[in-house]
UniProtKB/TrEMBL annotation:
<dbReference type="GO" id="GO:0005783">
    <property type="term" value="C:endoplasmic reticulum"/>
</dbReference>
<keyword id="KW-0732">Signal</keyword>
<protein>
    <recommendedName>
        <fullName>Glycosyltransferase 61 catalytic domain-containing protein</fullName>
    </recommendedName>
</protein>
<keyword id="KW-1133">Transmembrane helix</keyword>
<dbReference type="InterPro" id="IPR007657">
    <property type="entry name" value="Glycosyltransferase_61"/>
</dbReference>
<keyword id="KW-0472">Membrane</keyword>
<dbReference type="GO" id="GO:0035269">
    <property type="term" value="P:protein O-linked glycosylation via mannose"/>
</dbReference>
<keyword id="KW-0325">Glycoprotein</keyword>
<feature type="domain" description="Glycosyltransferase 61 catalytic">
    <location>
        <begin position="288"/>
        <end position="393"/>
    </location>
</feature>
<dbReference type="GO" id="GO:0016020">
    <property type="term" value="C:membrane"/>
</dbReference>
<dbReference type="InterPro" id="IPR049625">
    <property type="entry name" value="Glyco_transf_61_cat"/>
</dbReference>
<keyword id="KW-0812">Transmembrane</keyword>
<dbReference type="GO" id="GO:0097363">
    <property type="term" value="F:protein O-acetylglucosaminyltransferase activity"/>
</dbReference>
<dbReference type="Pfam" id="PF04577">
    <property type="entry name" value="Glyco_transf_61"/>
</dbReference>
<feature type="signal peptide">
    <location>
        <begin position="1"/>
        <end position="20"/>
    </location>
</feature>
<keyword id="KW-0808">Transferase</keyword>
<keyword id="KW-0328">Glycosyltransferase</keyword>
Amino acid sequence: MKRITLLVLILLACIILLLSNVEIHGSLSTRFIADAVFKQHRFDEGFDRTGEAWRTRISWTSEWDLLIPQTNIVVHAPGWTIFDNLYVMNGTVFVVADAPETIPPRKTLTSTGIEIKGSPELVKARLPTDREMRIISPEDAIELFGSGATLIDGVTWMVNDPPQFIHHYYHFVAELLFGFWRTYSSLDPSISDSGISALSTPRRIWFVHLDANQWRDPPSLNQWVLRGAFPSLTVEYSNDWIDRAELGRPLLLDRVLFTDRAASMQGQHAHEVGRPLAEACALPGSLHWWSPIARNAMQFAGLVDESSLVETGRPVITYISRQKRGGRMLVPEHHERLVEELYSLRDKYGYEVNIASMEKLSREEQIRLAARTTIMMGVHGNGMTSLVWMKPSRHSTVMEFYIPGGFTTDYQYTAYALGITYYGWWGNVSFSDENLPHRAYPEGFHGSQIPIDGAAVAKACVARLQA
């Protein structure tokens, strides 16, 4: 009897163990299958099995649903144009359109890319030919390109300028980058003050006429700004352009922002203002159009807390001094008086006052200082480029000192484009956007004896900050 009972117990134990093993195995199998499905799902998410996962080529036929994509001009101002479906082959840009009369004049789109000088011969030599750009019908495009093209997806910034100006910090950031982003940002009128935008990040920049060294400025600010604002951006140069041309294959670019300084000079706004940027700034857009770039640069410089910026603390006055650099400078005694007057404002009103020699600051320090500055002042010239990092507000102001009778719109227009109040100074006389003088470059314009009335400047600072 005991033996039978023992055998029954052993049999029950084996059955229980077997059932448990099946359950465990089933559970493990289910989990493995689930993991496999999850992994397969994740794999499928990143890889399209149709064969076009990388979108490397687009094909077309004569069938209605597979016609060659035509070029669409999304935004245009002379020298600043956004194209969808722009073609490039053998180093020539092609606009494919069945209604060529709808395409703006070619000279407002591109140029030959030679240096910009004023002689009639060189002005004529800059006008584009069929070597630079052709406007062709879809039928001609199919005959020329065949049944398809290599696809360059995403947003491409194509710069058709010569190296003449680009290696200069002001021209690169406050003209070229400014104009590029002002044009591109016109597609998103809802850009917020904090820099939030629905715009896709540009994938690449193509310098058609520059090698790898010709866009870099001596203080390395150009490359710092570009890498800081667009960390994922890739850069191609003239030798890469030649490489692609020598392939002899048609390229189809998804979206291109095509910039050309010479073409912008064909526009009325650029002619009136004297700034190529003026054409881009005539486009509609958000008041905060520059915020995404400024935000990225500030974060790259280590300014991650916007609560430290303008209007959240005491006003910051920054005088950018050139007194130890040579070239354009204030009369020495006037410089000393200006510094005294500014320090008096610090003592009386509690303003933060900085007498800054930018060449002594790191790139990060320059950006951080400018981003905190409420009023920026200095002798006209390249040092004032830092105003692009100021945060526009009702008190933000730029003051630029000139030899009496002299004036240029370089930094006045930059401030205007950002919504920052501008004052130019001739000694004790100031002028603003409402009463700007004509551009003029009298003797002493770039000299070391530029006068300024420090007391008048200090008084104007108080008026601005208490407005």
